[in-house]
Amino acid sequence: MWHEVRGLKDDVDFGTPPRDGPPVALEIDGVMVTVPAGSSVMFAATKADRAIPKLCATDMLEAFGSCRVCLVEIEGRNGFPASCTTPVVEGMKVKTRSETLKRLRKGVLGLYLSDFPQSEIPDGWSEFHETLKAEGITSHPYGEAGANHFDAKVDDSNPYFLFDPTKCIVCSRCVRACAEVQGTFAITIDGRGFESKVVASQDQPFLQSECVSCGACVQACPSHALVEKSLFEGEYKHA
Amino acid sequence: MPNPIKPEKSVITTCAYCGVGCGFKAETRGEKIVRMIPWKEGKANHGHSCIKGRFAYDYYNAPDRVLTPLIRSSINDPWKSVSWQEAFDYAASEFKRIQAKFGVKSIGAVSSSRCTNEEIFLTQKFARAVLGNNNIDNCARICHSPTQFGLTNTIGAGAASQHFDSILQADVIMVVGANPTEGHPVFGSMMKRRIREGAKLIVIDPRKTETVESAHCKADVHLAIRPGTNVAILDSIAHVIVREKLYNEAFVRARCEVKEFENWMALVGDDKYAPELIGPIANVDPADIRKVARMYAGGPNSTIYYGLGVTEHSQGSTGVMCLGNLGLSCGMLGREGVGVNPLRGQGNVQGGSCLGSWPHVFSGYRFVTDYATRSSFEAEWGVTLDAEPGLRLPNMLDAAVAGSFKGMYIMGEDPVQSDPNQHHVIAAMKSMECVVLHDLFLNETSKYAHVFFPGSSSLEKDGTFTNAERRVSRVRKVIEPLAGLQDWEITVKFMNAMGYNVSYSNPGEVLDEIARLSPNYSGMSFALIDRIGSAQWPCNVDAPEGTEVLHREKFPRANGLGTFMLTEYVPTSERTSDRYPLLLTTGRILTQYNVGTQTRRTPNSLWHPEDLLEINEQDAVACGVRDGDWVKMSSKFGQIELRARISERVNPGIVYTTFHHAKSKANAVTSDLSDWATNCPEYKVTAVDVVRINAPTEDASLDAERLEPAE
After folding, report:
1. Tell me: the pLDDT tens digits for A15-45?
2. What are the DSSP calls for B197-242, one per residue?
3. Angle CA(A140)–CA(A144)–CA(A148) in degrees, nearest 5?
């Protein structure tokens, strides 16, 4: 049990929590790596220095498998499993990079971008921005004419952090951090599909919700949709 | 401004708020702190945080921060800004004059659990080596002194037996007089994580706290006892364990003094502690007492966490002993997942306790009367030390009122606001000739001070804190001290001005001195902590990287055995009457911290702008009080005015308030009774009367305005 919290490293995000099962050896892009049973393929890849791009995964939270950016190829298996939700198996052979994977990831990231304002891309340094850069995506493939959430209202009720739904990619990391790490269950996803949105309590401003301002959601957010106010100078507004 | 501005630098340090001692990365741009991010490798918090450590750090920058030393010859004069050297010289000359006139023992010092280990150690060195007496105390006196006494006398060490992570192996968690989700939120989150995995939860607390019931966390049993009946209820639980033979005989025979165990069995096994008799006294269902006893003894891993709800009673030490006895009798000590653990209120209460800031003991709880120990300190410090124990803080105040005690060096404390029976404390302060206060802000006590040393916040200095699990972590300087000196430097320079020649180039050298003089810290050094992140004492040749779980093989007592203390229940003399029909108990909430010096200067006050009196609907109807009404609460000791909140969290007959705001002056009503063994005040039980009033009288909010944060 402890490994989930004790095996964390400050400068590495393994993507899924460390485990302490018996050793399992597998091959990632030809690199042999041994990790405890119960670890994910994503965890093993990070150990093997073959980190896989990801958005909804982080090692302080259990795997969720929603963003579809961490897809890999596994010898002998069909399709492109998400590396975060796939447990390691002895002798498994994983490929984290290929032309097909690159195309798939680019496609998925492009869809995220279709609901992310172009003006917010330059100068960004969130995990989302870094992932775009790492995957070589600089342009906005679908333009801004389609349906989007660019007019969503910023919730700045909390004195310490704000929530800008425009930048939210609905990865549920905040929801899971509130539940798994903090244990308060103040945040949820309201609605389905395109209507899905992050809400506090019964769609209330954060300050009026059950939120206890522990900051776990802000820390977990990969796109600076939830972000500390102290990192801004002057009023918060979109570029 | 589409995106946040990226911080330039980060420094890993330790939060100065509660006893969890979370590791943080303090991020800066220029000389400004722009963000605190919980450190994933912090062994107390594993990357988690609460609102206080994560966000409420800006108090260091508050406009009323004092940045120059202040002096005045009379408390009726205005303050005069002076240079550091003038302040040191003035304070030293006053202390010397007082000692020449009233004797060596007419002055004392008080340190705070918000200071670093190094500062606490230097302050007690100041008293012992420079003032030449043992008049040194610290604020753990008013919170956890019974822990040291009660645990030392049963399991041999006045400290948590476990590390926090141990709770992840527990099957039964018993929380007594503590509210971790508000008082120790990061530990509370870990506890809730374990409860969601299926661990059982027992809560013994007069109030239905958030720990009792919150999302996906519900106590299997909540004993909502009458305040002041801890010892009765714990003896009754022990009674069931003894009568139903639920104890772990093999453990007791192997690890404990069997004769003392038998004496204890005879006491708690007596009919008078039967749940059927104690239930009505404590106002709980006898069947629940039996259920708790069976659950705790059944384990297989049962662990106890307790807080000030156990210690701040006239039988505080007895209550702690009851917990030690329970752990020993059921064999719930010496491995992971079990234990008896105090939850320390302030960041460095454990450090304050174990580094000799006490009138009777040196670091490691070794008596000043012991020749060998004293000699080792004399050799290191080059002076002859007093063999007679000094005065405790309450006794210093008494002696001040009596006229024999004339001066005090107070580091990071506000006794006028935080100590019981405020009127008495003020009388004591007024009768002293030189009070030297060392703090960030002018506070209630500064009204009676003659010298003010402007201190440095924990973000502006180096040192170490020891958290509630005995973990020593580094405090690192994030920005330069705003008033020019780090706190440890101030104390050293004050020592120098007093004529005691000593110098350190950095606080790591103070920690080295602590290591040389204290067996439990002998392996500690800045280098070790920098290398492995943090280390739990005992840290010595046998455990070079520290010790997570105590008592694995034996207990740190002369014969290596745990022992049982007799814990007869003696009801407090503070009881309700026709005049004072309700029992007041006090506590903390999440967003504010103690007397609020720091958090009230941050936006945290949005969540808790004032202290409220929680009152049950039944009592509210009887007193004619509606939700939000102003009420006057009076006790034998004083009266205060605050607003009422009708709440199901308290049972009929009980009222509850927090003590975070100076204007509500909760400690003006609390009783002057204290723990029989340690003088820890009985904050948790005061008989009071509540009367509705139309509006607060003028002066109730007068003083406080100045202290409220500028928003």
Report:
1. 999 999 999 999 999 999 999 999 999 999 9
2. TT-EEEEE-SB--TTTEETTEE-SEEE-PPTT-HHHHHHHHHHHHH
3. 115
Nearest to A212 by CA among A234, A183, A191, A190: A183
Amino acid at B267: L
Calculate the dihedral angle through the C-alpha atoms of B417, B420, B424, B428, rounding to the nearest 10 degrees: -60
- Closest partner CB to A160 (pick from B41, B43, B55): B55
Smallest CA–CA distance from B217 into chain A, residue: A183
Tens digits of per-residue pLDDT, B29-38?
A: 998 999 999 9
Which tokens in the block code for residue A238? Answer: 């979109």
In A, residues 110-139, which contact B (CB 8 Å cutoff)? 119-120, 122-126, 129
Render pLDDT for B73-121 as a digit per residue (tens, 0 to 9). 999 999 999 999 999 999 999 999 999 999 999 999 999 888 999 999 9
Cβ B25 vs Cβ B39: under 8 Å: yes
ipTM score of complex = 0.94
Q: Are B308 and B144 in contact (CB under 8 A)?
A: yes
Nearest to B338 by CA among B526, B185, B163, B187: B163
- CB burial readout A176-211, b (16+ within 10 A) else e: bbbbbbbbbbbbbeeeeeeeeebbbeeeeebbebbb
Nearest by Cα to B294 from B359, B351, B246: B246
The answer to whether the bond into A165 is cis (omega within 30° of 0) is no
Show which of residues 161-190 on chain A sit within 8 Å of chain B, judged by CB atoms: 161, 180-185
Long-range contacts of A47-53 (CB under 8 A, 24+ apart): A47/A14, A50/A96, A50/A97, A51/A15, A52/A15, A52/A83, A52/A96, A53/A105, A53/A131, A53/A134, A53/A135
Whole-angstrom distance, CA of residue B696 vs CA of residue B630: 7
| Residue B691 identity | V
**Sign of the CA dihedral running B644, B646, B652, B657:** negative
The domains of chain B, with CATH numbers, are: 9-61 (2.20.25.90), 70-143+348-536 (3.40.50.740), 145-342 (3.40.228.10), 582-707 (2.40.40.20)
Report pTM: 0.93
Task: Name the amino acid, one letter, at B532.
Answer: I
Q: Is A183 left (phi over 0), alpha (psi -120 to 50) or beta?
A: left
Q: What is the pLDDT of residues A191-209, one digit of tens each?
A: 999 999 999 999 999 999 9
Question: Quick one: which H or E segment has residue B429?
Answer: helix B422-430
Contact indicator for B301, B172 with CB cutoff of 8 Å: yes
Give me B260's structure tokens. Answer: 């003392």
How many interface pairs between A and B have CB atoms less than 8 angstroms apart? 123
- DSSP 8-state symbol, B63: T
Question: Between the ranges A48-57, B567-576, B593-602, where is the mean pLDDT highest?
Answer: A48-57
**B684-705 pLDDT, tens per residue?**
889 999 999 988 886 544 444 3
Tokens of residue B664, six digits: 């509500």
Residue B34 and residue B9: Cα distance in Å, rounded?
Answer: 10
So what's the pLDDT on residue B710?
32
DSSP B559: T
Q: Looking at beta carbons, which residues of chain A come within 8 Å of B43? A: 6
Number of H helices, E strands in chain A: 6, 8
Peptide bond into B519 cis (omega under 30): no
Calculate the CA dihedral of residues B535, B540, B543, B546 and round it to 10 degrees. -10
**CATH of range A161-231; options 3.40.50.620, 3.40.640.10, 3.30.70.20, 3.10.129.10:** 3.30.70.20
Report whether B67 contacts A201 (CB < 8 A): no
Contacts of A220 in chain B (CB under 8 A): none
